[in-house]
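Memo subject: From amino acid sequence to discrete backbone structure tokens
Action wanted: Derive the backbone structure tokens from the amino acid sequence.
How to read it: Take the token row as a discrete description of the fold.
Attached in line: The record itself begins immediately under this heading.
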Amino acid sequence: MTNHLAQTESLYLRKHAENPIDWWPWCPEALETARRENKPIFLSIGYSSCHWCTVMEGEAFSNQLIADYMNANFLPIKVDREERPDIDSIYMQALQIMTGQGGWPLNIFLTPDRLIPFFGGTYFSVEPKYGRPGFLQILQAIRRYYDTDKAKLQDVTQEIMQHLQQSAVIPGTETIADNCLSSGVQVSTAIIGDRHGRQSFPMIPYSQLVLQGSRFNLEAKYNPQEVSIQRGYDLALGGIYDHVAGGFHRYTVDPTWTVPHFEKMLYDNGQIVEYLANLWSSGVHEPAFKRAVFGTVQWLKREMTAPEGYFYAAQDADSFTTPTAAEPEEGAFYVWLYSELEALLTPEELAELKEQFTVTPNGNFEGQNVLQRRHLGELSHTLEAALAKLFQLRYGALPQELKTFPPARDNQEAKTYPWPGRIPSVTDPKMIVAWNSLMISGLATAAAVFDEPEFLELATNAANFICDRQWIEGRFHRLNYEGKTAVLAQSEDYALFIKALIDLHQVSLAFDSAPVAPEFWLKTAVKVQAEFDEFLWSIEMGGYYNTATDSSDDLIIRERSYMDNATPAANGIAAANLVRLAFVTEDLNYLDRAEQILQAFSSVMQRAASACPSLFVALDWFKNHTLVRSSTPVFASINQHYFPTAIYKIESDIPAESVGLVCQGFTCQAPAKTQEQLLDQLQASQTRYHSVVQG
């Protein structure tokens, strides 16, 4: 027997389709059923590559006693947070209000009439543990509470609703303090520079701000340039990177960047590719950075690119060791027994592997080895040959022989397909606009920095797919399930796709043989921005709502995303986009709207700078935007330098015998006679805000 999730497209939801719990997707019929039957809603939110979501599915959600009680007393609803980040954001905030912490699976109980949360948690064990009740006991207690203590329930829901409503109303200001940008850079530098946490996350929105801020030479506890370079070393050398086959895992479970939580998310990889390319263009020509970028693009081509050109969403952390295994094991696809290495490699190869990587007989992860580099620099031919042998053991072919590797779309396919090497992790093949956009931007940046037309072609193919397939009846949509477009686009989809389009426009200026003319990307960006403004702009408060005006009826509040997490917040990206559009189109209405966003969130920037690095990136664009006008092909060389708030425009009417004009806003410096002079003017323009603040 299957439940209501059997006909859904989401891989995460379909993983629960055969649970004895009578799951519903989030839909009007489910909400109406809960109201009609006066059943509290049990809302469970997760995503396909979430390890503890998988554990709870196999334990509590497959337990018949729990299912019987749940079905009789609650209306259970499953949500894929990757489909509906708006729902996830609201109820994650509620959980943090109630418990002081959050995570996934997010399990929360709602009143059926107003959808207000009144109790929640993350992972619930079937059996009582560590002084905590088992899940069935929790369900029984919550149902008693719902039935017998209406007065307290009303007080609790009223208090939580007040907190949520207050959080959605952010007081803005008309002025932004002169030191706001430097303070924001210093705060993010301290966050990235502190290496004493229990886990290590890429935190690219923070790292990006630190890298941009490094050009100001600010005085701080940590040096922004050193911190941004160190973050590059951590990423390119650490166990978070798959040194055998490319691609970055989501984070490491330790502060030493050694043992990852093994899932690979598209959104991380897109951001990291862009960040490492920016580090390279800033002058840090570390071979490990280039190897990680190129290896990640190879992984993307081989395992994460659909035949239609878009990119898949994620790969699970867990995989099966044999076709008959009952459950997958975390990291099984990626780790190495020392005995395997001894049998596979020559003594010379093994010795060099042990010298360059964290390889020991006892291992560093449950008796096995996660590869983490010990040193910077190039890897030798001997070592690359050794890593190719590991690739062959994992995939069944050498790297140069394996152009594409088919995704395992669910556990059954993973266990039954005749894989020539190890059984791979399950790949979630859905297309998410926001995540594809992050990868498009990363590829575009890397294409310019490393002069790689193939990277631009990959980015172009994905962007063309979105342009061709993600509009239905004139409205932009977030998801595509192997040809089926779904879910209206949210603010992050609009903001990140507009950024990707502008990035493609800028990078295409540097390639004579760009697959698509630069003007197409700019015209498309203007069109998407107009739709964004029409359906998600907050006229009353400024900034963009997470969801459109006509798709928010089932939400208890409308949020405006400003807090950065693993991905950058929509309003920070949107403000920077608007500055860029203003000067490349010469339409100052965009600049006015960017200023309105910064004013709308100015109190947050001053009160909670640690929450919103992308808004500070946008503030940097607003204060330090530099327009380069040229009719000559100088953009290819300029793009290989790091000018984080510069935008480029082809014009035919620049002064004779000049290579270009460097303009601060619409005030231009003397025409540059040589490319060297142009670069000097551009460098000075990029750091002008620092001199104003320090003066």
About this structure: The first strand starts at residue 24 and ends at 25. DSSP finds 27 helices and 20 strands in the chain.
